Sequence to fold (426 residues):
Amino acid sequence: MTPVPEQDPRTSGIRAVEAVWRDQSARIVAALTRHTGDFAWAEDLAQEALVEALDAWPKSGIPDSPGAWLMSVAKRRAIDGWRRRERMAQREPLFVTEALQAEASDPVPGDADPDRIDDDVLRLVFVACHPVLPAQARLALTLRTVAGLTSEQIARVLLMTVPTVQQRIVRAKKSLAAAGVPFEVPDRTERPMRLASVLQVIYLLFTEGYSAAEGERPLRPDVAREAVRLGRQLETLMPGEPEISSLIALMEFQSSRFAARIDAEGLPLTLEQQDRRRWDRSAISRGSHALRRADAAGRGLGYYGLQAAIAQCHAVAPTFADTDWDRILRLYDALDTLAPSPVVRLNRAVALSMVDGPEAALEVVADLEPELTGFRPLVAVRAELLERLGRMDAATSEFLAAAELPGNAAETEVLRRRAAVLAGGH
Fold:
């Protein structure tokens, strides 16, 4: 056991539990769902193990294998539950024979079944994206179980209120239980109807890793890597689907910048500030190959294809000044036509400011205010546009206003520093 620092054992234990839950909750819930056949009960078991960890770890120390500790506790509680239900004889052998069954069922090399994906997390995503659930409920449930986000973080990502998120998650779990949805990847005839939701969930999972909704860390590379892994597994399961390849391309282009996205203090850097020599050229190459696979389908660029093409413009530009903003603006126009949203229009406004100047972009941002009230990126973009226009007092106020809105702590610090620099410069 690794001892918890004596000076603040409670805080250290809580932070350890939170970190483990963020990183491993999806696998724990997925494995428990496979064991129990009951998604809602699996999440309850995982949450009960989490509560036990919050009580135990500050006293006894953080286990050497925290995820295994949580899984063990959850399994014990499942066994207790089966005993109470007088179903122990039916279920207990699952835990005893699991390893042998997994070994025996491994496909022979070179004889793999393309329809078989032994990936509990991907199964979990497909379950949570079942068409019996409304679209927003699928997203909320999967972000809770796969990304380990809190209701507050999910509300920020989906632009909802916290009570709405909580209600949809509860109703979603009840609906899955009532429908008796099996814990499995659907057969190939059913996959297309779930594909859009699965892709959206994987992308939101990546987005949480690329720019954390809350907390002290601006990046969660482990979460982003898990999203990329799920994307690749999905492409293996459904080869030839251009939007899957496009999403992989988008994630590769974005993840290529991880090493350059934060400074020595752990604070995020803008595209203009980043040292492009630190960008991962192999990831950019993989992204380009994936985008070519999408193009080869001959269906034109879809929602993720257009975003991947935008990301590629940034990835291949030798310097910030060399960025092809005209092409990016055209791609955003196409994206807003295909899938109109206020967030797309906000990103388009940034591109517009690089082509036609900040004044034109500021008008667009003003029009978006009713739809994106309380959305930190909108206020931050407005602050930057005002700064470029030389309106320093207004820009200072907007940077401070953005810092007060929900977001991760590192972004908050950057916004406050930018306000302080402007305030001190005139």
